[in-house]
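Saturday, quiet lab. Running sequence design on the structure tokens for the scaffold JK sent over.
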């Protein structure tokens, strides 16, 4: 009888541990998928903004034929951003987004030099669309970073960290602003 009780206690302990292990691993999978969902949302919004930019550039080019440097920077940054999104490489996406945001901000300030441009309905509509996209991107980045924080915290806490290490869960990268993005862009019309 005593042997049966010990055996039952051991089996119960194994069952409890197995359920805990499975529950913890499933929770980590859920958290990781939430990070991936938030990443996809950021990438979707970046792509939306990326798709609006050629229309804005075409509108501005009609007024500013000699601002070629900005147009070139925007084209290069757009290509890098699209490549990063296609590759799913968050680090490339972050870098390309910073470059594109910098070039785009300089493009949007061009309207100060060309008053006729600000009167163009297509330009103002596109500028407002891009501004709205920037706000949505900012919010999506915040949600992504919150998901990464929750996930990264979960995989580092003991005893879940043991399961995370055994199952190959790796720390995710935050969507941080590039160092250059902290500098205010200098726009010169001379």
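Result came back. Writing it out in full:
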């Amino acid at each position: 009888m005593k042997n049966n009780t010990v055996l039952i206690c051991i089996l119960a302990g194994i069952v409890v541990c197995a359920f805990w292990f499975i529950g913890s691993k499933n929770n980590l999978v859920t958290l990781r998928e939430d990070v991936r969902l938030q990443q996809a949302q950021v990438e979707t919004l970046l792509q939306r903004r990326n798709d609006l930019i050629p229309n804005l550039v075409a509108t501005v080019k009609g007024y500013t034929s000699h601002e070629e440097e900005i147009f070139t920077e925007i084209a290069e940054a757009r290509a890098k951003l699209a490549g990063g999104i296609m590759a799913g490489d968050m680090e490339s996406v972050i870098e390309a987004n910073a470059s594109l945001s910098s070039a785009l901000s300089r493009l949007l300030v061009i309207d100060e030099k060309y008053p006729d441009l600000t009167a163009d309905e297509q330009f103002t509509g596109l500028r407002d669309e891009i501004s709205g996209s920037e706000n949505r991107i900012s919010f999506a980045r915040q949600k992504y970073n919150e998901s990464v924080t929750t996930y990264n915290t979960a995989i580092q806490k003991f005893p879940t960290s043991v399961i995370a290490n055994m199952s190959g869960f790796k720390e995710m990268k935050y969507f941080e602003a590039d160092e250059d993005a902290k500098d205010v862009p200098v726009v010169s019309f001379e």
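Notes for JK: Helices lie at 2-61, 68-87, 90-109, 115-119, 121-156, 160-167. Residues 184-190 have pLDDT under 50 and may be disordered. Ask whether to fix the surface positions before the next round.
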